[in-house]
Amino acid sequence: MKIESDTIEQARFGGLALERLIAAIWPEAYRVALSILRDRGMAEDVAQEACAAIARSLPVLKVAGAFHAWSYKIVVNHALAALRGRRHTQSLDALASQELRFDAGDAVDLYAALASLSAVQRAAVLLHYYAGLNSLEIAAATGLPASSIRFHLMVARRALRKALAVAEGHAVRPSDEVLSDVH
Would you give the distance in Å from CA 156 to the centre of its chain? Predict the structure, then answer.
């Protein structure tokens, strides 16, 4: 999601520019929320709430160039808050049994592996690999220290590598995990 600075500046005043900005960020907000929540209905609600919060808070954004990380922070915070709220109403077994269904055969293994990660790890992986944010930008988006983000990414990469290797029928040696995280 790359938005031009002048588009953000124009959107601060509302009107059609704000509508275009929200329309531009909606798909990304939904994808982020869905990746964290693994529930399409909740993800849609969270994305709507996050987009509304972005629209309300846009006038206080000091630097238009920070919009990218700032908007992700709002979406991630809304998704994590919804996830915390959902935990009070669902059992852990119910949460563990939820999964996204996709038509592509090879994609199922990746999404199942992503679903096995914690919400924070899924958010970090998504923001790093899908949105292209670095650990400092992810830290700004999640409110966690950059060192924690790097740790979550390392643990998530190991878990994903292991889950995907098992799905493909390959064993992962501990030495492979250590060496591949060095690079």
Answer: 13
- How many CB atoms are closer than 10 A to CB 61? 17
Cα(58)–Cα(60) distance, integer angstroms: 5
Q: Take residue 22 and report the two structure tokens written for it.
A: 């929200």
Last residue of some domain: 48, 77, 98? 98
Indicate whether this model's pTM tops 0.85: no
Q: Give pLDDT tens digits for 91-114.
A: 334 434 444 344 444 455 677 788
What is the extent of the structural domain holding 81?
1-98
d(CA 165, CA 170): 5
Same domain? 90 vs 106: no
Q: 156 and 117 in contact (C-beta within 8 Å)? A: yes
Give the pLDDT mean for 10-29: 91
Residue 147 CB: number of other CB atoms within 10 A? 10
The residue ranking higher by pLDDT, 26 or 35, is 26
CA distance 156 to 117: 7
